[in-house]
């Protein structure tokens, strides 16, 4: 009986040792050599896996960089620091990406925006938008169900007073919130911008104002008073040409509905 047990143990041990030897040999002969450049590139990427570069994650982007199949300045969250590290590793000059943050082109708060219905369905902006364009009279503004907040990889978005509130101090500019928004009301802008139009409504003035008291009414006071011709009313909505804008703030001062705001995106302050 004891001998039988010992034989069984020896057989099991021998099988284990043999399996170990086979696995060791397999890992040696069939292993794929690790690309040191790819490894270095992966280490310098932030690891957010946001997809802003066009790849599903940092691993795939690093691999494409090492193989020379993509541009080296596509990592928005990594910004200048990451671009400089990639430049050093690849030994090439890399144009550093601009610091971008997400902003909400809407100020349709609970107090300002009028409701056309009470939505009591699946909690999601896309789902709510499928029913008559959403519960608000303004069919262009933030729905407020928080799809953007749910997908944000750094928790920079919360729903406050019926609309998305973006903390630009946390925002890494990955743009996933802008991609998921069914109303395209979230926009990436350069963080040094000082003036924003917080409206997305393209209805005529009277209709827009009826839907939301903070809406642009296309009165053109901003356009007429801008000394640099940097703001135009296009399709009933004020649009800023940041190539011309010097952030003087005159447009915000003359705007009767205050849909144009002075901002400090470095401190997440909107006035």
Measured between the Cα atoms of the first and last residue, the distance is: 88 Å
- Supply Rg: 27 Å
Helix content: 25-40%
If helices are DSSP runs of H or I spanning 4 or more residues, what is the number of helices?
10
- Widest β-sheet, arrangement of strands: 5-8-9
The secondary-structure class comes to alpha+beta
Structure at a glance:
The protein is 33% helix and 13% strand. It is an alpha+beta fold and 271 residues long.
Could you describe the 3D structure shown?
With 271 residues, the protein is α+β, with helices and mostly antiparallel strands. The chain contains ten helices and nine strands. The chain has helices at residues 2-29, 36-44, 58-66, 79-90, 125-129, 147-151, 176-180, 205-211, 221-225, 250-254, and strands spanning 100-104, 157-160, 163-166, 186-190, 195-197, 231-234, 237-240, 260-264, 269-270. The chain has a three-stranded antiparallel beta sheet. A two-stranded antiparallel ribbon has the order 1-4. The protein has a two-stranded antiparallel sheet with strand order 2-3. Helix 2 packs across helix 3 and helix 2 (36-44) packs antiparallel against helix 4. The N and C termini lie far apart (88 Å). The model has no long low-confidence stretch (mean pLDDT 88).
Observed structural traits:
271 residues, two-stranded antiparallel ribbon, alpha+beta
List the helices and strands and how they pair.
Elements: H1 2-29, H2 36-44, H3 58-66, H4 79-90, E1 100-104, H5 125-129, H6 147-151, E2 157-160, E3 163-166, H7 176-180, E4 186-190, E5 195-197, H8 205-211, H9 221-225, E6 231-234, E7 237-240, H10 250-254, E8 260-264, E9 269-270
Antiparallel strand pairs: 1-4, 2-3, 5-8, 6-7, 8-9
Helix pairs in contact: 2-3, 2-4
């Amino acid at each position: 009986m004891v001998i039988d047990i010992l034989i069984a143990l020896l057989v099991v041990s021998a099988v284990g040792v043999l399996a170990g030897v086979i696995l060791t040999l397999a890992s040696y002969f069939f292993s794929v050599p690790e690309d040191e450049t790819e490894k270095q590139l992966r280490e310098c990427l932030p690891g957010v896996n946001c997809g802003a570069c066009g790849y599903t994650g940092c691993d795939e982007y690093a691999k494409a960089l090492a193989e020379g199949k993509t541009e080296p300045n596509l990592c928005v969250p990594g910004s200048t620091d990451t671009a400089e590290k990639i430049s050093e590793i690849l030994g090439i000059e890399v144009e550093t990406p601009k610091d971008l943050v997400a902003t909400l082109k809407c100020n349709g708060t609970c107090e300002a925006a009028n409701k056309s219905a009470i939505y009591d369905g699946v909690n999601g902006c896309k789902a709510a938008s499928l029913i008559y364009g959403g519960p608000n009279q303004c069919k262009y503004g933030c729905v407020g169900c928080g799809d953007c907040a749910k997908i944000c990889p750094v928790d920079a978005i919360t729903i406050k007073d019926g609309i998305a509130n973006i903390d630009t101090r946390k925002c890494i500019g990955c743009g996933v919130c802008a991609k998921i928004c069914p109303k395209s009301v979230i926009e990436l802008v350069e963080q040094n911008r000082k003036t924003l139009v917080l409206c997305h409504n393209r209805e005529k003035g009277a209709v827009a104002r009826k839907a939301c008291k903070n809406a642009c009414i296309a009165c053109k006071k901003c356009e007429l008073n801008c000394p640099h011709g940097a703001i135009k009313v296009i399709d009933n909505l004020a649009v800023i040409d940041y190539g011309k804008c010097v952030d003087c703030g005159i447009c915000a001062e003359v705007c009767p509905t205050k849909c144009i705001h002075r901002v400090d995106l470095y401190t997440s302050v909107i006035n």
